[in-house]
Amino acid sequence: MVHQAPVERGHAGKSPDVPARSGQRSARLPRDERRAQLLAAAQEVFVANGYHGAAMDEIAETAHVSKPVLYQHFPSKRELYLALLDSQLSKLIELLLGALNSTSDNDERVQAVMRAYFRFIASDDQAHRLVFESDLVNDADVSARLEAFNKTFADAVARVIAEDTKLPELESQLLGRGLAGMAQISARYWLETDGNLDLDVASDLIYRLAWRGISRFPKET
């Protein structure tokens, strides 16, 4: 059972909105803004320390709020982590589907999707580490979210393939998974090159490899 942290009381009966660091009263934010602030702080801490190494104390301090404020929005570290993962997966799938639907030219589609994946991996906020390098990956709720993301993206790619070729649905889905995996693995490897290979050059290399393969399938007439 998750126990909510006791309400902290500062001097002169200060409210839980007192920042953890400064001891000064925090501005009262609308709930959505406060939630976004807490998620941003949590992302910073989880990226730096991983799930198991992160502490709610540090997240509250990073967000400049007291622990009771943090617990009002997220009753446990696990719920906070899952909310953050949901947020990042939603952003990534929106980014990828946006690239996929940005044109009806399949050549340009493949290029746009590969570039979108690489740019997500290259983002300074290192959100990709929450998505692809989680130390909570064996958790059932985490793995279910990751599989749902992979399926959504791969199925979207498969639909495009199926519409454009004579391949049956199952074969199109396999190709969709293959293209999605190619984008993810190559982008993560590119990150290890520490900027020695330009992002656009790297993503275009993978796009050309993928397109030369997929374009060889027969077109639907």
Write the layout of secondary structure elements.
Elements: H1 31-53, H2 56-63, H3 67-73, H4 77-100, H5 106-122, H6 128-132, H7 140-164, H8 169-191, H9 199-214
Helix pairs in contact: 1-2, 1-4, 4-5, 4-7, 5-8, 5-9, 7-8, 8-9
Structure explained in plain terms:
With 221 residues, the protein is mostly helical. Helices cover 67% and strands 0% of the residues. It has 9 helices and no strands. It has helices at 31-53, 56-63, 67-73, 77-100, 106-122, 128-132, 140-164, 169-191, 199-214. Helix 4 (77-100) runs parallel beside helix 7, helix 5 runs antiparallel to helix 9 and helix 7 (140-164) crosses helix 8 (169-191). The longest helix is centred in the C-terminal third of the chain and has 25 residues, at 140-164. The radius of gyration is 21 Å and the shape is elongated. The termini are far apart.
